[in-house]
Each structure stands twice: as structure tokens, then as C-alpha cells.
Amino acid sequence: MASSITTRDSSGVYLGGTASKIKIHRMGLGVLMLTWKVPAVPDEQAFAAIKSAIELVPEGEKLFLNSAEFYGPPGHFTASLELLARFFTKYPELAEKVFLSVKGGTGPNSIMVVDGSPQNLRRSVDAINKALDGKKRMDLFECARVDSKIPVEQVMQSLKDLIAEGQFDHIGVSEISAETLKRAASAAEIAAIEIEVSPWSYEDETQKVIATAADLNIPIVAYSPLGRGFLTGQISVETLAADDIRRRLSRFKDDAMAHNQKIVEAISTEAQNKGITPAQFSLAWVSNLGPHIVPIPGSSKVHRIQENFAAGSIKLTAEEVNSIKDVVKSIGVQGGRYFDQSEIEHLWG
Asked: Looking at domain 6-230+286-319, what is its CATH homologous superfamily?
């Protein structure tokens, strides 16, 4: 491959609001897939992956580690948090190197239920803290989705009340529209905004939220920056197992994958020209959308985490960023981000 890598300043990103003195690394870590499937990734492998990410973060910065109350199979929703409790039991000295963000605010038995009531938020926070077992402080809590039944200002007040009780330290928001973000930020100090950002998830509302976040001086933590693995170039109709959970998603249906493969081909071409992998190009593409954007890819493999983190220092030209935008605009993305039922998924609340 050609060698035309230009490095960028890979120094960290300051969080917003009450966390504005905390600097996180330019690449974070999502841990959904460590416990989402059955069987879960073995502790030894999961621990090695998490530890490798922490060790890649320089002094003066923290790893933004993203978990949730519901990152587990039915009947064991708190599996991810329990994994983290076991990890920090083994490595207590690493707790201060991690900024732990946890999503909650769904129903106690269903992630499809959004409940921002004071009672449910307290239940959710209590469940999270119980699962963490005091082994790691919950630095930030965020509602996974916006509850359309309750004004966001009331939800922010409920979270501020829980902070005053010492339950956690900072407030985040997730899957929030630009207009609702403005309202939330007027009611509480927001530390981070979690939305999906990738070359195939760059909708009009995505762009509005990114711009609004910059105006408010709040960083974006970008989940699924690799399109749930599809944009790495390692997944195709032929290689994705029939029982893979991603088969349920509309973009992973056979026809959609065949169409969307054209986006992967464009990314792969740009990556090869630059001497990097498609995964690194996709992560760099997200990072280069703005200095306040922190991708949070996940992996259970140490070598993949090292590959991902190396992308944080790769600078893309405007032409390289725009070339992928142009391809996506030209051919379109087939399939919605989840199940083509946004009213159920509560996207862009």
C-alpha cells in the first residue's frame, strides 16, 4: 500500500459542562458486544481488550468507556456492568484512568421502553450502581433515549437531583435532536452527547447535532463509527452468519448489504491510497468531522483495539472526507439505522 499518512494532533478532548476540566482520549471504547451475545466474551479476553485500550491512553487523559444498564441478554441486562466490576476488582489501579459513561432510563425488563420518570431514573441508577458494586464510580449517566412523554427539562432536573445525592457525577444525553439538545443544555450542564456517526450514518440531523454540540462546546461521542463492523470491509453477504444478531437490522439484509457494499468499496479504495485499513479510514473520517468528535468503537481483540486507536492521529484531507460523502449522497444507504421503525426506536428525540 502507498504511504501517504499525515498525522494530526492526537491530544485529547475536554468534556463539557461540569466535566469541562476532564480530558478524554481522542478514541474511546464501547463494550456492548463483550456481553451482548450468548455466550459472552470470556473474562480473560475481555479484560485484555479493556486493559489494552486503557494502556494506549497517555498521562493526563482518560479513556471514555461506554456501557449501559442493558448491555446483556434477556434476564441478565446488567452483564456489562458486572463485567466491569470484575475487571476493576482485578485492576483497581486502572479505575482512575477511565471515565465511565453508562446509559439507562429504559424499562427494567425491556430496552424498547423509554421511561424518563423520576421513579424509573432512580431505579435505573440504583441498578447500575448495584451492578458496579463500588468497584468503579459511574462518572456519567445518560438516558439512552429521549422520553417524548416528559419534558426534557424535567428529566434534566431529575438527574441533577440524583447528582446532588452523590449517585453519579455528570450528565450526558443520547440519540437527541439538535432542538432538544438546546433545551437540555439550557436546563443542565451537559458533559457529552452520544449519537451514531459513521460514513453511512451521517444524516441531516446528525450534522445538525454535531454543529449544535460545537456551538455549546460539548463533545460528541460517536457510537457505531464502523457501522457495526460493516465498514471494515470484513463483512459480506457470504461471510455474515445466518444467526448473527446483525441480520435483524435492515442494513444487514442481503439486498441492503449488496447495495451498501459500494460504500465499503469507496472507503477501501481511499484507505489503500493512504496506506491504512478501511477501519482506520472510517474512524479517521469520523474524527476529522470536527475536533470535538470522539469515536467509541468496540472490539474484543487487542490487535483491533490497537489498530483503532492508531486512527486517532490520522489526518484526512477535505477531499478525502468529501469523497465518501459524495459516494453516499450519490448512491444512498439502503436500510435504516435499526429496523426502519424510528417511532419504536425513539431516534432523534
From this structure: NADP-dependent oxidoreductase domain (3.20.20.100)
